[in-house]
Specification:
The chain is mainly beta. The protein is built from three helices and 44 strands. The radius of gyration is 25 Å and the shape is globular. The protein binds beta-D-fructofuranose (FRU). Keywords: Glycosidase, Hydrolase.
Length: about 650
């Protein structure tokens, strides 16, 4: 059994003890970065929320501080932001000593327990001593609840053009925009998002930033929106939108409008059976129609066939109790596929059935099962057509109290890994940088991960940039340069060429579970595997598949995994096709792997719990491959 501190990251922020989720109130002021965070000081599972606090000069080395915001008569303290009020618009400080002002959500759980829906409101607090002590505003809340159930996570920034404060707020399935002159009175301006992006879960933790497109003088607004569930690889994740904002309204760029209305040609997400207690691994496959793609039953299936008799089969789920009003899912079917269907069975009888449309486009469907609540049921996916060609694809079968829209809603994601959630940027960062940190976990299993003393870490800080790519403008995540201070003794090789496999730990000295490895891959037509492994047969595999435009992160054998059924997953991300070379950068800590490809245009963050830290790195392919600029840095920690 690993020791109690075995999974404590070496270079990621963790609370000293007990539960942490979202980063909050991140702000830079007078040489110090402040990180507040959702914190339950009494337990290692989520509970009454406080704002924990830490201070750093470089976002790398953090000093723990006392808890700064405690629950009060308005509720517990949910997520929010902090700003430097330079003009003293709030009157809480002076121009000479501008106040720091925190804007956060009050969550009144007593009211919620009584069945009210207006239990979330926004409050503020201020500090005039560089964040050391905080005073809550006497007239809280400053933004009352207009009757919206999920009404939270205010992120405030100064809008230069209109000389006012702007707040973005998550409101059920969209973002509300508000303005203020003094941080104390807020005026509603507009809504955005009910028609765009993914709506498979509730919207949370927005951020609005004005970002220069690298290499141009053009600026765009980027709106980050976290969503839970509905992320591309299950559970919670963060999508983004690029557009313009005039102080009142956010308008999505026409490119993004097109992209988000066009269904991607490639089935993007695989199956998310995370809401089934036992996951797909307990489904029964009979016949041959259903190929478990790459033998990866945890979250991906597809059925595809070509005019032969073998192309017939069924996939049957374990039985489950119907416990919500709707079962929602996404479905697509090819031509000649009338008899291919997904069915819901109760007592062996088909009570619901659906088949895909003929275009191959994913559409969202809902079965209203409110009449069947409490009954035992199972699902069958049936493929009994011996046609010319075709396929059926099903994704995201989710129990819900609400019906899904009859439409598939594509989205663009900040990070395709499972473990980067609720991230936002620091206020007032210098030199126009957009410095981001996310919570390195996922609501799907956050409360169960195998640590007891503390629970959860933040991602490494990243700088967000808008890069021009052949596909259009994309938001890239790049590890901040301050992290370089952690890197000791760079070991490098200008090129490695001639064979199809390189064991980097034989070429370099690797500090177990504390290193960064990077290289650039030049003959990138073929599938390349990067395997990080330990002395204990545990590994995390990253696979680059440029021909198919896919990046896959496999943590099925990564270490401890049985604490939750869906954790041992295979995660996929889109990868740009046909580039001359692919630069790959991987940061490995005791319990995480963070991957950045193509200057961070593709990123995947994943937590893992190897019982012995990863100390081997193999890069391999079927044919000889060439790596250049190969670097290995061990990560030195002196605290
Ligand atoms: C996101 C979130 C926020 C909320 C906070 C509660 O992870 O659900 O929407 O403010 O966590 O801890």
């Amino acid at each position: 059994k690993p020791s109690k501190e075995a999974f404590r990251p070496a270079f990621h922020f963790t609370p000293e003890k007990h539960w942490m989720n979202d980063p909050n109130g991140m702000v830079y002021y007078q040489g110090e970065y402040h990180l507040f965070y959702q914190h339950n000081p009494d337990s290692s599972v989520w509970g009454p929320m406080h704002w924990g606090h830490a201070i750093s000069k470089d976002m790398v080395n953090w000093q723990h501080q006392e808890i700064k915001l405690f629950p009060d008569e308005h509720g517990t303290i949910f997520s929010g932001s902090a700003v430097v009020d330079w003009q003293n618009s709030s009157g809480f400080g002076s121009k000479e000593n501008p106040p720091l002002v925190a804007i956060f959500t009050y969550h009144d759980d007593k009211k919620a327990a009584q069945g009210a829906i207006d239990f979330q409101t926004q409050g503020i607090a201020y500090s005039t001593d560089k964040g050391r002590t905080w005073i809550k505003y006497a007239n809280n809340p400053v933004l009352k609840n207009p009757g919206i159930r999920d009404f939270r996570d205010p992120k405030v920034s100064w809008h230069e053009d209109t000389q006012q404060w702007v707040m973005v707020l998550a409101q059920d399935d969209h973002i509300g925009f508000y303005s203020s002159k003094d941080l104390k009175t807020w005026q509603f301006e507009s809504n955005f998002g009910a028609d765009w992006g993914s709506h498979a879960g509730v919207w949370e933790c927005p951020d609005l930033i004005r970002v220069r497109i690298e290499g141009t003088d053009e600026y765009k607004y980027v709106l980050l929106v976290s969503i839970n569930p509905g992320a591309p690889n299950g559970g919670s994740g963060t999508q983004y939108f690029v557009g313009d904002f005039d102080g009142e309204k956010f308008v999505l760029d026409s490119d993004y409008q097109k992209m988000l209305t066009t269904t991607p040609a490639v089935f993007p997400q695989g199956l998310d059976f995370s809401n089934f207690k036992n996951g797909l691994k307990n489904w029964q496959v009979s016949g041959e129609a259903f190929h478990i793609v790459n033998d990866q039953p945890a979250n991906t299936i597809a059925s595809s066939f070509k005019g032969s008799d073998e192309a017939i089969g069924t996939l049957t789920s374990k039985s489950f109790a119907i416990d919500h009003d709707f079962i929602n899912f996404k479905i697509a079917g090819g031509k000649h596929h009338n008899s291919t269907a997904i069915q819901l069975l109760v007592n062996g009888e088909i009570v619901k059935t659906a088949s895909g449309n003929n275009t191959g486009t994913m559409t969202e469907r809902s079965w209203n099962v409110s009449q069947l609540k409490g009954q035992q049921a199972y699902i069958k996916v049936v493929d009994n057509e011996r046609g010319d060609w075709g396929h059926i694809k099903i994704a995201d079968i989710v129990f819900s109290d609400k019906a899904a829209k009859e439409k598939y809603e594509p989205s663009i994601w900040l990070d395709y890994g499972t473990d980067n959630y609720a991230g936002v940027t620091f206020s007032d960062a210098q030199d126009g940088r957009h410095l981001f940190m996310g919570w390195m976990s996922n609501w799907q299993y956050a409360n169960q991960v195998p640590t007891e003393v503390w629970r959860s870490a933040m991602t490494i800080p990243r700088e967000l940039k808008l890069l021009q790519t052949p596909a259009g403008v994309r938001l890239a995540s790049q590890p901040i340069k301050e992290l370089d201070s952690l890197l000791s003794n760079t070991q490098q090789k200008a090129t490695l060429t001639g064979t199809n496999s390189y064991q980097l730990d034989e070429l370099f000295t690797v500090e177990p579970g504390q290193f960064k490895v990077s290289f650039s891959l030049s003959n990138a037509e073929q599938v390349t595997d990067i395997v990080l492994s330990s002395d204990k047969d545990e590994y995390t595999k990253l696979q680059l598949n440029p021909a198919q435009g896919q990046l896959v992160l496999d943590r099925r054998q990564s270490g401890l995994k049985d604490f939750e059924d869906g954790f041992a997953s295979l995660q996929t991300a889109p990868l740009q096709k046909g580039l001359e070379y692919y630069d790959v950068e991987i940061w490995v800590d005791k319990a995480s792997v963070e991957v950045f490809v193509n200057k961070g245009v593709s990123s995947m963050t994943s937590i893992v719990f190897p019982t012995s830290p990863y100390n081997k790195i193999q890069v391999s392919a079927e044919q000889p491959l060439s790596l250049s600029d190969v670097k290995l840095n061990n990560i030195a920690i002196e605290k």
